[in-house]
Amino acid sequence: MRSVTAVLVPALFCAAPLWAQDDLETPDAFAAIADKAERSAALFQEMGKVLTHPRCLNCHPVTGGPTQGDDMHPHDPPVVRGEADFGAPGMTCNTCHGAENVTLTGGQGSIPGHEPWSLAPVSMGWVGLSLGEICQQIKDPQRNGGKTLEELHEHNAHDGLVGWGWHPGAGREPAPGSQEIFGQLTRAWIDTGAACPG
Fold first, then answer.
1. What is the pLDDT of residues 46-82, one digit of tens each?
2. Could you tell me which of 23, 29, 94, 190 has the fewest CB atoms within 10 Å of its CB?
3. What does the buried/exposed string (b/e) look like for 63-74 if buried means 16 or more CB atoms within 10 Å of the residue's CB?
4. What integer pLDDT is reported at residue 108 of this predicted model?
């Protein structure tokens, strides 16, 4: 049996995005890691498969507006963040994005939808950050919308907009695993000390 370090170190430095890897493991897959902090960091590494997937990254930009698609190309039509991360006056997000996904009449893709539909605040942008930096950011109430770890678990496990990532409509790859597993990983990560990958 290979050591956890032998498995995790290559994963941290691989050229492919985390989301390109296999499906999401459940917390049980990390039970053999005896060191609590090491197990916690490994759990967050697994959560990173979701956090670094285009379904999350498209709406968590650091600058500018959202991106779209699995290739994360600029939003078309061009949009700006606007006040309250909801677009510019006269062209807010809900101008095009309704309460649910709408398949295009030609059947080639869809317009994503959820109520509400908006960008994550700039303080929650993590495009271009390392997984360790994302971890530190989402634990920080000054940069995560004022959430406690318990509220972060609730957000990851039950928020409908987060859940949209697994039901993104025609033409989009869903995030790996399921919101249920993502919530379980978040719970286990918190319960083991919410350690961050190095």
1. 999 999 999 999 999 998 889 999 999 999 999 888 8
2. 23
3. eebbbbeeeeee
4. 83
For residue 176, give both structure tokens: 């790996």
Q: Which residue has the tokens 């909801």?
A: 86
The alpha carbons of the chain give a radius of gyration, in whole angstroms, of 17
pLDDT in tens, 130-177: 999 999 999 999 999 999 999 999 999 999 999 999 999 999 999 999
pLDDT at 196 over 90: yes
Is residue 143 within 8 Å of 76, Cβ to Cβ? Answer: no
How much is the pTM?
0.86
